[in-house]
Amino acid sequence: MITAAPVAPYALSLPLVRLRLAPHGTLPRRIDGVWWPYSRDLLTQLPEMLAALPSAWGDITGVTVDAAAWSAAPGRMFVANQVVRLHRAPASPHAPDRIVLLSPGLGRWDLLVIPPDTTEEAAAVLMAGALDDRVPDDGETRTARPAAATGTSGRVGPTGRGTRTRRW
Description:
- The chain is built from 2 helices and 9 strands.
- By secondary structure, it is α+β, with helices and mostly antiparallel strands.
- It has a domain at 31-134 and 142-149.
C-alpha cells in the first residue's frame, strides 16, 4: 500500500523590492528615489526594480550604472517585453552610487543605490534621510545625507514624472 502525505500549497516567496521613491511635489529634488538591491547582479536585480516603478514613469529604455559597482552585464536586456539599453559609465565623484533611468519623452530619474551589503539599520537611516530635503534650522547643509544624494536631479511633478531643468 502506498500512502501520500498531503502536499502543502506552493507558496512563492520572492523577496520584496527595496525601493523608496520621492513623494509627489513641485520642489526640486536631489534624487528621485532610493534603491537597496539584494546583490550586485544587475541581470537579476534590475528587472525586479523596473517592475516596481510607477506606471507614470513610462517604459524605461535606458539605464546608466557605475561600471565598477555592478557585475558584468550585456549592453541590452529584455525586460517586460521591451529592450532596455544598459550604459556602464565610470563613477561620478559627485554621485558614486547612483543609477539613472531614462524614459523617452517622459523624463530622467536618479536613484541612490544603497550597497547590498549595508546593514538593515544603516540602510533604513539612508533611505529615510536621502529623501528628506528639509534644511536644518542653522541653514547649513545636512551632514547625514549620503554623498550620492548631493548629485544634480530634477523635480517630481504632479503626475509623478521626473521633470528636469535643462543642463547647459
